[in-house]
Amino acid sequence: QVQLVESGGGLVQAGGSLRLSCAASGIIFSTNVMGWYRQGPGKQRELVATITGGSSTVYADFVKGRFTIARDNAKNSVYLQMNSLKPEDTAVYYCYAQIITSLTLRKQDYWGQGTQVTVST
User: Fold this and answer.
1) Nearest 5°: CA angle at 15, between 11 and 21?
2) Whole-number Å distance between alpha carbons of 71 and 32
3) Helix/strand/coil for 112
4) How far apart are CA 95 and CA 40, in angstroms?
5) Is the Cβ–Cβ distance between 92 and 32 less than 8 Å?
6) What is the pLDDT of residues 45-70, one digit of tens each?
7) What is the H or E stretch that residue 95 is in?
């Protein structure tokens, strides 16, 4: 019914930048909160940043000042600009969206398949 497709991960040197993109497709009535989570090796999945339809944002302390989240409501898309990357940012990054589908008219949580970000020293 709904798919989230991520792109933009890869390998980058410490201090470098990457931009992640995520597009939601399917029978979407509306999209509420969108965001990014990450899971590093041997770690729990953790919040990176979220953004509401009205563009209110929340950032994890460890990315404040380095990462910027944005969204395009018309495209049901969310982006994560990551600057000043550190080796500890290495993780699989997952796109998240709370979506109301045209089929159910109820809020449901959806996740992307994940995209690997590796930051080398």
Assistant:
1) 50
2) 11
3) coil
4) 15
5) no
6) 999 999 999 999 999 999 999 999 99
7) strand 91-101
